[in-house]
Write a structure and sequence with these properties.
By secondary structure, this protein is an alpha+beta fold. Helix content is 18%, strand content 23%. It is built from five helices and ten strands. Strands 1, 2, 3, 4, 5, 6, 7, 8, 9 and 10 form a ten-stranded mixed sheet that branches. It is globular. Helix 3 packs across helix 4 and helix 3 packs parallel to helix 5. Strand 2 and strand 3 form a beta hairpin.
Length: 342
């Protein structure tokens, strides 16, 4: 199980539209490893090609990644775009499920496509090149809300599964610390913590949590995993530049800072920046809401509500009621899914 939703659902569907004409992709010198190749014995139908598809999305207006009959979802939007491209329904399987409001820098899924000749039904045509698939699907995605995009496509064998072949998943979680209200540009993109955060204390707490443990205290109700045992390969907190990051208007062309005698920035309309902290969590798989529960505890350590010793007590309690309140979904990003690609 990954940082998963516990709900599964039905597909949102619309009548397919005829796709716009997509230019053919020319061969490149030396060949492209992402081009479609023949995998003998992998498919019963030579017209069907399986593709590995990497997607990015802003999760704010999605009710999670999995299909739901009454809500807009990541898979629903993606299947709709693919259907408009090839003219028939498809089924998409995701490597990692994400909750409503959770974002992805790179989530990965797979889909089987059959290329049918529109002029001569039944005529066998070679599979679409990955570049054509990416451009065509993005064409239809951008006609929707524009908050999801295909970033990479690769041809894979018919027995390659996006979820079960995943070797490692990495999540980022962004926290913005400071008393100032959150910028409009950061709305639903990070967890705003008004208090100052102690970076060193949070880093020390990470050392207790990394490794192979019973993570029952960081496992939300409804988790479908058979065991609470997980190996957390990496858990760290670092300070990062808050985004969007522009050249400072409080610095003159000769590099001198504008300010009063007390060093404070003077100037109307200049927003004070928050300190930005990023939690990185890396493992083969995660329990339901594990990352957000981990971040909730780390935040409490940063504000001084918990000590590093308290973190060890929570871990050993093996009960989610011992943990701090879970971090909100808006700061969580699925950053990367690692594979040993053929």
């Amino acid at each position: 199980m990954t940082e998963d939703l516990k709900h599964s659902s039905d597909r949102c569907s619309e009548s397919p539209n005829r796709p716009s004409k997509i230019a053919r992709t020319e061969d490149t010198a030396g060949g492209d490893p992402r081009r479609c190749v023949s995998y003998q014995g992998m498919s019963q139908n030579s017209r069907i090609q399986r593709y590995l598809v990497a997607i990015e999305y802003i999760g704010t207006r999605f009710s999670g990644s999995q299909q739901q009959s009454t809500c807009r979802t990541v898979i629903g939007a993606l299947e709709e775009a693919f259907q408009k491209f090839i003219g028939q329904p498809v089924s998409i399987f995701c490597s990692s499920r994400t909750d409503a409001g959770v974002h992805a820098l790179s989530n990965v899924c797979h889909v089987d496509l059959e290329r049918i000749s529109k002029r001569k039904p039944g005529e066998v045509l070679p599979p679409h090149e990955p570049t054509v698939v990416r451009r065509a699907v993005n064409h239809f995605l951008q006609k929707n809300e524009g908050d999801i995009m295909v970033v990479d496509v690769r041809c894979i064998p018919a027995d390659f599964h996006a979820r079960y072949k995943a070797q490692e998943r990495t999540y980022f979680y962004r926290l913005l610390s400071g008393p100032e209200p959150l910028s409009t540009f950061e709305k639903d993109r990070a967890w705003h913590v008004p208090q100052e955060l102690d970076l060193f204390a949070m880093q020390e707490a990470c050392k207790i949590l990394v490794g192979h443990h019973d993570f029952s205290s960081f496992r939300a109700a409804g988790c479908q995993a058979n065991s609470p045992m997980r190996t957390l390969d990496e858990l760290l907190v670092s300070e990062s530049v808050s985004t969007p990051n522009f050249p400072s208007i409080t610095t003159t062309s000769d590099g001198n800072k504008l300010g009063g005698s007390n060093g404070e920035i003077q100037g109307f309309g200049i927003r004070k920046r928050h300190r930005c902290f990023v939690v990185t969590a890396r493992a083969r798989s995660f329990l339901y809401h594990q990352v957000r529960l981990l971040v909730g505890v780390l935040k409490s350590v940063g504000t001084g509500d918990l000590t590093v010793c308290d973190v060890e007590r929570i871990l050993n309690a093996k009960n989610v009621t011992a943990a701090s309140p879970m971090a909100p979904a808006c700061g969580l990003y699925l950053a990367n899914v690692k594979y040993d690609l053929p």
